[in-house]
Design goal:
Distance between the termini: 62 Å
Shape: elongated
Number of strands: 0
Radius of gyration: 20 Å
Structural class: mainly alpha
Largest sheet: none
């Protein structure tokens, strides 16, 4: 059982890493698609924080919607799975809250790098091709 636990932990870390890479790729694609918009907003006086907030909000909303779908399903499946054991254990609400908070923090950290990089870019480079 210890070996299965260690194996499950290793695969969990691998799954989180792969999902972060996918999220990073989506953030890169989104920033690349919106370079002209970011350039125009910078010329009109937008701050780096405002642009970061604009780009990060999209991803946080998507993750929040995913959490609203996944948490009830996980709670239902976990309750059924835990009933099979002789010694009962309950799924506490704080486990799901901590998971949601961790997921949102990982999303913000992953997307922030690309968002800040796109927001800090000089607007001349993005608007020069017009």
């Amino acid at each position: 059982e210890e070996r299965i636990g260690k194996l499950a932990g290793a695969f969990t870390i691998l799954a989180i890493f792969i999902s972060c890479m996918g999220l990073f790729g989506m953030a890169s694609f989104m920033a690349e698609q919106r370079t002209k918009e970011i350039g125009v907003r910078k010329v009109l006086g937008a701050s780096v924080f405002g642009l970061w907030k604009m780009l990060s909000t999209d991803f946080v909303m998507l993750v929040t919607i995913a959490l609203l779908i996944a948490i009830p399903v996980a709670y239902y499946l976990m309750q059924g799975w835990l009933l099979n054991y002789q010694y009962r254990a309950e799924a506490s609400w704080w486990i799901f809250a901590a998971t949601a908070l961790g997921t949102i923090l990982i999303t913000i950290l992953t997307v922030s790098f690309q968002s800040i990089k796109a927001a800090a870019m000089t607007p001349i480079k993005s608007l020069r091709s017009e």
